[in-house]
Amino acid sequence: MSTFGGKPLFYLRKMRLRVRTLSNDVRRSFVSNIANRYGDRLRRFLSQRLRNVADAPDLAQEVFLRLMRVEHHESIRSPERNLFTVASHVLHQHALAPGGDCRSP
């Protein structure tokens, strides 16, 4: 049986899986709290800057997915500012994409 530091390797893999699961749960909770608190404002922010308002929910979802990818969310000083910065980047990328239709600021 393979060991590392006196522990069987399967035990270490199991522990790593728990850490990842905990991290994902914490991340989901962080993003869920932001969505509950700022979701309506985010959708208004996006809708005001799009010609096709029907794209707003998709872009809002992209914003939240990007926030889910943040590894050290506890280092974010202002979640609201970070949310709208990410939203601005998503809008910019949407405008650059073929068929993107953002209004000029």
List its salient traits:
single chain; 105 residues; mainly alpha; Rna Polymerase Sigma Factor, Chain: A; two-stranded antiparallel sheet; 3 helices; 68% helix; 4% strand; elongated
Report what the structure shows:
This protein has helices at residues 9-48, 56-68, 79-96; strands at residues 3-4, 7-8. The protein has one domain: Rna Polymerase Sigma Factor, Chain: A. The model has no long low-confidence stretch (mean pLDDT 81). The chain is 68% helix and 4% strand. It is mainly alpha-helical. Strands 1-2 form a two-stranded antiparallel ribbon.
CATH architecture: Orthogonal Bundle
Q: What's the level 1 CATH class?
A: Mainly Alpha
What summary fits the major beta sheet?
Answer: 2 strands, antiparallel
Number of domains: 1
**Integer-rounded radius of gyration:** 19 Å
General form? elongated
Ends apart, CA distance between termini: 63 Å
Topology readout:
Blueprint: E1 3-4, E2 7-8, H1 9-48, H2 56-68, H3 79-96
Antiparallel strand pairs: 1-2
Helix pairs in contact: 1-2, 1-3, 2-3
In short:
This protein has 3 helices and 2 strands; from the N terminus they run E-E-H-H-H. With 105 residues, it is mainly alpha-helical.
